[in-house]
Fold each of these.
Amino acid sequence: MSTSDLAPPSLAATPSELWVACLCAQWCGTCRDYQSLFTQLQAEFAPMKFVWVDIEDHADWVDPIEVENFPTLLMAQGEVPVFFGTLTPHIETLRRLIQSQLQSDTPFKGDPAVWDLVTRLRSQS
């Protein structure tokens, strides 16, 4: 599957739907390898929303956040971020993170710019 198969991302979702955005770059070998794993989980966790965001193709959506390590995941419950950070590129790690977020009601305490990123990504169609 190519990057274009998942982009441009559309995060239009029901207000409470959990969605996962992977922030990567096409030039990154780890990202290219990880994309097929990410897509596998998309099928496993349907109807959750999964999107692949190339930080260079969509830099205007990601700025001012600096993504320096890959893969970086952003998870949100509707409009509310629930996770933002770098993850080891293993399918089991992402699966466990998703499962834990589905069972969690812990509020996000991270950078306010992440809230803005959620809004920007969700507004793209």
Amino acid sequence: MDLGAVTPGHVLIVPRLHAIGLEDLDEETSTHVWRIGHRVGRALRRSGLRCEGVNVFLADGEAAFQEIFHFHLHVFPRFRGDSFRIDADWATRARHLLDEEASAVRQGLSLTSVSPSHPPTW
């Protein structure tokens, strides 16, 4: 449970293996953390706590507001009128910018441990 809970029922999923962020975490551990996060989200909806929705939140790096430099996943119930906010200026991006950004992401994927002969199915 999170001492600084956003809403009642705020859970932290923390692997025992030390990793600062996604870059430092092996895929097997990461997959396990997200699987547990999914189970916790489902449990929150069934828990009887006030839960009209669920956020699964990861802060990876200081610029993303990571404050504890050990990888962890937040899973917390949401409900109309709760106080959690991410304030951002959600502007529509031009198609050519999206294409350029997608190209950069594909290049980053090619530098990961994913085998080119077995590309991701997503």
